[in-house]
Amino acid sequence: MAEAFLPYGRQTIDEADIAAVAAALRGDFLTTGPTVAAFEADFARATGAAHAVSCANGTAALHLAALALGLGPGDVVIVPTLTFLATANAARYVGAEVCFADVDPDNGLMTPETLARAAEAAAKAGRGPVKSVSPVHLSGQVCDMERIAAIARRAGWSVVEDACHAVGGSGVGDCRHSDMAVFSLHPVKTITAGEGGVVTTQQPALAERLFRLRSHGMMRAPEAFTEKDQAFDAAGAANPWYYEMPEPGFNYRLTDIQAALAISQLKKLSAFVARRQALAARYDRALARLAPAVRPVPRAGTPALHLYVVLIDFAGIGISRAEIMRRLREAGIGTQVHYVPVHRQPYYRARYGMLDLPGADAYYARALSLPLFPAMADSDVDRVADALARVIG
Ligand SMILES: Cc1ncc(COP(=O)(O)O)c(C=O)c1O
To answer: Which residues contact 23 (CB under 8 A, 6 or more apart)?
Structure first.
């Protein structure tokens, strides 16, 4: 019998998740209601943040964070080039310019050193003052936030952590070293809502603005109404239908159906993280025989792994990455490359020219993500390692 296809990542859904969604469907709210609020309270507790604001997806979360900071044309945001498109695009959504930072060639993370170099490049490019930096916790590793935040503090920049890969990581989301942290609840991520996103923050003013911007920019708190003539009646009571929009927002709301799934998934976060760590440790052992041609990424921080990435010396072994991916696929094994450095995308090349970011190029040239998700069996790891060994000879 053919073995089941192993994708590089997938959701883990059990009967409790299905029951939670079914209960939401039987409830009074389908869109944003009490289940969304309950999820936000659970997520804040799980990450150690004072506030968690849910939204439609991780991209919307990045957009909301940029809006909440008031970034706009004439501002520059530093973003590591080794990330998903959305981290950089969020700056463009608000009209800000992107300055791409290089990354460590071995783990793909922006470092304090590559950040400092990016700041110098931004000053030289003269597109405007740097206002914010978005460290990305790639694959679930954790950036050196203490040193990155120290640089940002000295320079007066805001910090938005892109933690879309890193829910469950040590200190991730508590915003001790950042203004906000942003999460994705896409099915390949560690926990899912189908689609979904969250922004965490310790700052009540940012939370208030995020809540407002995710729902059209509307607010209903009478004490904040500015247009007294239309907000209040002659006796000074707030009109019950009345709402105000100080600035336009979006419809970026999460639904109660999604939140029900997210609450159920969040209960399993530590089990999912532990299983991913155990599978990664097994990969490390199973792949040791393929060194030095194949090496696991030397992981930084205390990771809650979203991806298991190996670095392969394709030139040294004389087989291209495309060929290895094709042959693994024939063996029923899905792999992926995270990511094409964003500065190489035609849109950004046309805007900023071809940049020289050798750390990102070196990482990109060697990276391959192998299957990693909690429902994998130990024997699946051995199967992938054996197939890779066969393919590279
Ligand atoms: C690093 C990173 N940032 C942002 C996003 C965007 O998240 P979403 O797909 O939920 O919009 C992703 C998702 O792929 C991601 O990997």
So the answer is: 260
